[in-house]
Amino acid sequence: MTTDMKRAPERFGKVALLMGGQSAEREISLRSGRMVHESLRRLGVAVEAIDPDATLLERLRSGGYDRAFIILHGRGGEDGQIQGTLSTLGLPYTGSGVLGSALGMDKYRCKLVWLGCGLPTADFVLLRDEGDLSSAVALGFPLMIKPVHEGSSLGMARVDSVADLERAWRAAAAFDPLVLAERWIQGPEFTCAILGREALPLIRLETPHVFYDYEAKYSADTTRYHCPSGLDAEVEGRLRALALRAFEVVGASGWGRVDLMLDASGQPFLLEINTVPGMTDHSLVPMAARAAGIDFDDLVWRILETSL
Ligand SMILES: Nc1ncnc2c1ncn2[C@@H]1O[C@H](COP(=O)(O)OP(=O)(O)OP(=O)(O)O)[C@@H](O)[C@H]1O
Ligand SMILES: [Mg+2]
Q1: DSSP state, 271?
Q2: Taking ligand 2, which is a single-atom ion, which protein residues have CB atoms under 5 Å away?
Q3: From 203, 212, 273, 282, mutation site for ligand 1 pocket: most ligand atoms within 8 A of C-beta
Q4: What's phi and psi for 252, nearest 5 deg?
Q5: Contact 275, 101 (CB under 8 A)
Q6: Is pLDDT of 223 > 70?
Q7: Residue 155 Cα, ligand 2 centroid: separation in angstroms?
Q8: Residue 142 CA: which ligand 1 atom is closest?
Q9: Is 24 near ligand 1, meaning CB less than 6 Å away?
Q10: How large a percentage of the chain has pLDDT more than 70?
Q11: Where are the domains of the chain?
Q12: How is domain 3-94 classified at the CATH fold level?
C-alpha cells in the first residue's frame, strides 16, 4: 500500500458493499464480496455488506451511506438496474453507469455496437425461436451457443452438428429466451483487465476443456493462466488498445474486463465485456493487477475511487 492510500479512508464515508443478489452468479458474487469486504476493512473504510432483496431501497435510504461498492455479478446487479436505483437515490457507485452496464450485459447488442465501430467480433445469429436455427446452420459448424444475458459460461455449449444444435439451444434458452449462435473461434484466449482508463497486462487462458467453461473457471486445477501472456510486445499493445476501445465504446467505465480470442491466423475477435468481473482469490482482474504491481488492497482502493 502506498502512503497516499493510507491517507484518508474517511473521504469515502460509509460504503454499502452490494454483494450476493439473485442472479445465477450469486455464489461467485458472495465469494468476491467476502474478499472485497475483508480488503475494505483492512483499508480502514467504513463498510457494511448488503445482499439486495426486496428491501434494498429502504435499506439504502435509511442506512446513511455515502456510496456503494457494487460486486454483484450478472442480471439485476451488473446490468444497469442497481446502477439506476443508486443514481435515483443520488448515491455514487463504483464502475460503469446505467448504459455501459446494460450494454455490457447484453452480448448481442454489445456486438452490434462493436460492428458499428468496425471492431472485430465473431459472426453470429440471434436465436429467438426454433425458426432461427436454420440461420445458425448456415453460419457453419462448429458453433458456440450462448445465452445473451448470462455469465460464468452458464448455458453455453459448442455444437458440431445439426443434431446437437436444438438441444444446445434449448439448454441456453432455459437461462435466457435470447440466445446467440456464434462462429467458433479456434485459437488462444485472452482477457484484458481495465482499471480507470488503462488496460492491464493480458492474461492468456489455457484449459484442456473444450472451452473455458464453469469448471475451468471456478474449480478445475488444470486451467493455466499466463501473465505475461507470451505475446510479443507489439501484438500485446495492439490487443490491449483494442480491449480498451471495446470497453469504452459501449459506455463502460471505471473497471472491468474484456474477453477476446485470436484465430489461427492471429486475427483478434472480441467475445464480451464484464463490467463487474470476479474478485475472488482466483479471479482474473486481481491477477492482472498483481502483474502490474497493484496488490489486492490497492486494486480495491482504486475501484472504490471510481465512485468519487
Ligand atoms: N465464438 C467462440 N468460439 C470459441 N470459444 C468461445 C466463443 N465464445 C466463447 N467461447 C468460450 O466460452 C467462454 C465463455 O464465453 P463468454 O466470455 O462469451 O461468456 P461468459 O459466460 O459471459 O463469461 P464470463 O464468465 O467471463 O462473464 C470463453 O471464455 C471462451 O472460452
Ligand atoms: Mg467471458
Answers
A1: E
A2: 259
A3: 212
A4: -80, 150
A5: yes
A6: yes
A7: 13
A8: 3
A9: no
A10: 98
A11: 3-94, 104-120+186-300, 124-183
A12: Rossmann fold (3.40.50)
Q: Which atom of ligand 1 is nearest to the CA of 153?
A: 21
Say what the pLDDT of residue 218 is: 86
Q: Cell numbers for 140, please give them.
A: 457453419
206 neighbors 283 (Cβ within 8 angstroms) = no
Instruction: Tell the CATH topology of 104-120+186-300.
Output: D-amino Acid Aminotransferase; Chain A, domain 1 (3.30.470)
Per-residue model confidence (pLDDT) at position 3 = 44
Mean pLDDT throughout 137-146?
A: 97
Residue nearest to atom 2 of ligand 1 (CA): 184
The domain defined by 124-183 carries CATH number 3.80.30.20: no
Do the Cβ atoms of 70 and 18 come closer than 8 Å? yes
Query: Of 72, 152, 211, 247, which is best to mutate to test ligand 1, by the most ligand atoms within 8 angstroms of its C-beta?
Result: 211
pLDDT digits 0-9 by tens, 170-184: 999 999 999 999 999
**Counting every residue, how long is the chain?**
308
Whether residue 85 is predicted with pLDDT greater than 80 in this model: the reply is yes
pLDDT bucket at 152, cuts 50 / 70 / 90 = confident
pLDDT at 281 exceeding the cut of 90: no
CA of 2 to the centre of ligand 2 (A): 32
Give yes or no for residue 280 CB within 6 A of ligand 1.
no
Report d(CA 186, CA 273) in Å as an integer.
19
